[in-house]
Amino acid sequence: MAVIEMHGIKREYRMENKKGSSKDESDTIVVRALRGVDFFAEAGEFISVMGPSGSGKSTLMNILGCLDKPSAGTYTLDGIETSKSNSDTFAYIRNRKIGFVFQSFNLLARTTALENVELPLFYSRPWAHRRDKAEKKMNAQTRKERAMTALKEVGLEKRIDHFPSQLSGGQQQRVAIARAMVNDPAFILADEPTGNLDTGMTLEIMGLFQELNRQGKTIIMVTHEPELAVYTRRIITLRDGQLVADKKVTSRRNALYDLKQWKKDHALLSETAS
User: Per-residue pLDDT averaged across 71-82, rounded?
Assistant: First the structure.
């Protein structure tokens, strides 16, 4: 079953190029960030999106995340055609269909791990009666139970009352992943999710993504690091706004095995240094 179907996606930005003080001396520059991208993702895939700076990765991510609309083409997400959706539908899609994970975690500093994970459950309520009449208002106990379940899935059930400042970078990103999953979205969209982490924490997070994917979660990860892409199942590459490669990962690495080896090597280095 296709979760994502993109056909002929284009995104153009128009900017005024002023040559002088006169209005007659200005013209319009058209920047073609995406030039007709076709992209499909089935349920349960783990895909990395790669490409050099200026290739269109960020633009594609914004459209995938319904943060922006294409200039042309169609984007169907979990059966919803998004290209001509209004702002209310876009808000519904972002909250219920997409789980966002960012490089900078984006956790509320004065809010516990449990409360951070609960946030999307508060935001989903206003349009629930319009989208699903059978969906009742979620009470505090139900929100707490769902948030605790999500935290347990990422191995943080013993850290629910901790604030972000009391957690390591890897643990903060785990909270962010739990928050992304709490509404059971159609897919998780991760933008450079390990960019602020060291090697050990990076491998922990990639191991977590691999485990979630084994459980059936669909994950799209934007990255510029080939060494991370080998932990996914498929790599698409953009260049100059076009999709130039779409390949399966034939020699996929196991992040938790690599983490074990890294810890072993790190321990040996520490012993040698001492």
Answer: 94
Residue with tokens 């059930």: 157
Q: What is the DSSP letter of 20?
A: S
The reported pLDDT for the residue numbered 265 is: 87
Strand ordering across the sheet containing 98-102: 98-102, 187-191, 219-222, 46-50, 234-239, 242-248
Average per-residue pLDDT for the chain: 90
- Beta strand pairing call for 234-239 and 2-18: unpaired
- Name which of 41, 181, 209 is nearest 98 in CA terms: 181
Look-up of token digits 């499909």: 40
Mapped onto helix, strand or coil, the DSSP state of residue 119 is helix
Return the domain boundaries, the chain: 46-72+85-273
- Cβ atoms 183, 95 nearer than 8 A: yes
Question: pLDDT (tens digit, 9 = 90+) per residue, 26-69?
Answer: 578 888 999 999 999 999 999 999 999 999 999 999 999 999 99
Give the whole-angstrom CA distance, residue 176 versus residue 220. Answer: 15
Q: How far apart are CA 157 and CA 161, in angstroms?
A: 9
Pick the CATH number of 46-72+85-273 from 3.40.50.300, 3.40.50.12780, 2.60.40.3950, 3.40.630.30: 3.40.50.300
